[in-house]
Every structure is written in C-alpha cells, then in structure tokens.
From TrEMBL:
<dbReference type="InterPro" id="IPR043128">
    <property type="entry name" value="Rev_trsase/Diguanyl_cyclase"/>
</dbReference>
<protein>
    <submittedName>
        <fullName>GGDEF domain-containing protein</fullName>
        <ecNumber>2.7.7.65</ecNumber>
    </submittedName>
</protein>
<feature type="transmembrane region" description="Helical">
    <location>
        <begin position="60"/>
        <end position="79"/>
    </location>
</feature>
<feature type="transmembrane region" description="Helical">
    <location>
        <begin position="91"/>
        <end position="111"/>
    </location>
</feature>
<dbReference type="GO" id="GO:0052621">
    <property type="term" value="F:diguanylate cyclase activity"/>
</dbReference>
<keyword id="KW-0808">Transferase</keyword>
<keyword id="KW-0548">Nucleotidyltransferase</keyword>
<keyword id="KW-0472">Membrane</keyword>
<feature type="transmembrane region" description="Helical">
    <location>
        <begin position="188"/>
        <end position="209"/>
    </location>
</feature>
<feature type="transmembrane region" description="Helical">
    <location>
        <begin position="221"/>
        <end position="246"/>
    </location>
</feature>
<dbReference type="InterPro" id="IPR029787">
    <property type="entry name" value="Nucleotide_cyclase"/>
</dbReference>
<feature type="transmembrane region" description="Helical">
    <location>
        <begin position="30"/>
        <end position="48"/>
    </location>
</feature>
<dbReference type="InterPro" id="IPR052163">
    <property type="entry name" value="DGC-Regulatory_Protein"/>
</dbReference>
<feature type="transmembrane region" description="Helical">
    <location>
        <begin position="157"/>
        <end position="176"/>
    </location>
</feature>
<dbReference type="InterPro" id="IPR000160">
    <property type="entry name" value="GGDEF_dom"/>
</dbReference>
<feature type="transmembrane region" description="Helical">
    <location>
        <begin position="5"/>
        <end position="24"/>
    </location>
</feature>
<keyword id="KW-1133">Transmembrane helix</keyword>
Amino acid sequence: MGSHVLLRCYAAIVTVLVATYLAWPYELRSWPFLAVTSTAVPAVLVALRRAPAGSRAPWWLMLAAMVLYNTGNVIWIWLTTVGGRPNGDGGFADVLFTAAGALLLAGALLVVRLRSRGDIGGVIDSVITAVALGGVLWDAVLLPVNTAHHLPPTQQIAAFLDLLAVSGTLGAMLRVSRNSVAGRSASVRLLAAGIALTLAGKVMAPLVTGVDGMRPDWTNVIYLAAYAALGCAALHPSVATMLSGTPAPDDDLTRGRLTFLGTMLALTPLVGGGRAMLGLPVDGELIALSSAALVPLVMIRIARLAAQRRAAEQALHHLATRDALTGLPNRAACLDALAVALPAATAGAPATAVLPAAGSPAPGDHLTVLFCDLDGFKPVNDRLGHSAGDELLVAVADRLRGCVREGDLVSRFGGDEFVLVCHGPGAVTAVSDRIAAMATEPFAAGGEQVRIGISVGAAEARPADTVDHLVRRADLAMYEAKKTKQVGRLSLVLAA
C-alpha cells in the first residue's frame, strides 16, 4: 500500500471514530477511544521505518509515549468500567500519563532542535512568547478554577509546569513548521496541531470539570483529535524529510521585535499585578517561577546575538585583509604588516607585532621584501580561460606558502604579483632557492600541465626606508629581473 493511500485510509478511519465518539453508547465508548489511541502506535512504527537513520530519535521517544499512554488508558478504562471507580484510580495510570507526556514533549523538542539549526534565535523568541502567554493563561483562567476546586499546591505546581512546557513546545513547533518548501513541512505541522490540541485539552478540562472532580466525556474528543494528528504526522510521506534544516531567516533584533519581546517578558507580572489590584486571586510564587523560566532564554538569546556579532566582525576583518581567491593576506594586509615590522627592523629592535600570516615574525634587524611576478601567466590565462588562470594562481599561492620560513609572510599583491616579507638573515638565498625549485615543476591548470617562470626583485630594509620606498625598490628590482625572464626558471635581482 502506497504512502498516500495508507495516510488517507488512516485519516478517514480516525476522523470517523473521533467525529462519532459521542454518538456511541456511553458504555461502549471505550472501543472507539482505544481504537484511535492504539492505532497511533503502528503509525509511529511506520515513521520509524521511513525516517532516515540519523533522525529516528524523536520517533522512538514518541513510540514510548504512545505505549505508556495506551497502557494508562487501558488501566483507567478497566478501573472505571470493571473496577467500579468512575474517576479512575488517581495513581498508577496518572503516573503513566505524566511520563508519557514528558516523553512526547521530549520528542517534539528534539524535532525542534534538529529542524531549527538555522533559526535558533527565532525559536527562542517563539518559546519566550508562548511561555509568557501560557503564564497569563494560567493566572487569568486556570488559577481561579483550581482555587475553586481546592486543588492541592503540589498538583497546581505540576499542572502549571506542564502548561508552560506544552506552551513553549507549541511555540517552538509553530516556528519550525514555517517552511516555504512545499510538501516538506506537513509532518511538522500535523505534529504541531497535535501539540495544540493537547494544550487545548489541558486548558479546557479544568474549566468544565465539576466540583465532584468528574470531567465531561466530550473533552475526550479533543485528546482523540490530538492522537489522530500525531498518527497522521507519522504516516505522512514528508516524515522522511521533516528533520531537514529549514532556510535560515534573518535574525536581526529590530526595534519592533525588541519591543514585542519586552512586552512578553512583562506580560505575566503585569497581569498578576492587575489581578492583585482588583482583589482577585493571584499565585505569586508561580508568577515568579514563570518569569524566572524566561530569564535563561533571554540570556541565551543575548549570548547568541553577541556571538553572531563577533563572528560578523571576524568575517568582515577576514574579507578586508584576505585575498578572496587564494586566501593569502591581500595588499592592504601586507602593507600593514610592513608598517609594523619596518620600524623595529630598521631600529635594530625585535618586531613585537604578529603579522596576518600564521606565526610571529622572528626578532632581529633583518627585513627583506621579495616582489614576485609570474612570467607566462597571461598566455595561459588567454589560452585556457580565466578559470584556469585562477586555478594557476591558487596553485602558485600554495607553493609559495611552502617556500617561506616560520614568521614570514606571503601575500597576493594583485593580479599575478605576490609579495613575500621575510625576517632574519639569509632570506634572499634561502627563500629564492626554494622558489627556483618550485618554478621548475609544472602546474595543473585547466586540465593541462603548464609551466611558468617567476621574476623576483629583492630589497633589504635600510634605516631610511619607508614602507613605500622598500616596496618600490623591490618592485623596480623585479622589473629588472623580468628582462631575463625564462619559462620554468627563476629570475632574481637584488635591489641596490
């Protein structure tokens, strides 16, 4: 049976059972109830089989939740029908329901975590909003009802925490279900619908429960609809891609967004304070707990924004100081490095600044600039195309990195020109020998083996040199070297 056919058959059956639940005789309603709840188990098993191997953990949690829910349902129905306890046992079945609810929420939160990898900030904002609204819902709607029913404090705390957990999970699920890719979010949206129906049932049940503790049977329709939504989520073909990361939206905290989040943070205390001013019952401890639950979320949000800002600054610095093609320091970074190293070198003192290249400059009073220009690059670029030319430049950059010593700098000055800043004595001989050996080997470019030559002008720093003077002397020496250029050879001229 195809995926869509199986989904349609399941959806049709559970829809009929949920819609006709109240039409069944009261003593027979346990059959459609168990039929809807129990069929969610094989539906989740189908999801486990279809989901990719690395994304099955949420469905394992949901399977465990469905097993516990159904075990609790069987115990509760048996006690109410056979055991003669109209309100269940209030013990073991409730423990199973609580554990199942925790597992279901854990599975939903794992879906959120895996799906929202590109939208953590938006998910946190949604959770803050949902938890704040849940606190208001508790204080304005559920607290008066629980007070009237004389619910023990421990049960009130458990119900309050459960409400906040479900509200926050629903907010996160609604956020991650927003996906512009058609057909890939159906399972997530159906799962979010199931969480929303669960929240509706948790809110509605206390409102309609009588003073004798009996809950009207029609409220089961809400919970059955939640089971049906979960089963449809598990059977929908999009379950195989539901944990694929969504496109990351912009995460800018605009003034309007900050105002909204600030309002959400203040909402619960404001509502609680307003009720206190009107002489209405207020649960101060739980209001404080609700506000405290939001503080870590806000701190995480701020920490993420700070980290994103630092990353953006580092990226801008990298773009400003690095050549986009080769990854080497660019012209500006090379000149900055020389501006730091030259005064120390000409004064005979060790350079203390770290160059943009890996490693630190070696101390000493020798500073040499090698201005390199590729011979034969233009014919390769013209014959094989710009892509091949770029490939050749990247290959030359990689080899030049291996020609310098620790603390030296290799930069791309522009076009097919490279400037090496070397520290310590003997740089011209040591580095030029390595460049000469490099030039004898062919380079791969455009699917061919090509050969080029390298003309090098070397200039050692003098006390009266400025950065411009030092680079210009090396540049002029390089042009003298080009007069004897040969492909596959090094041409070197030392500036006077």
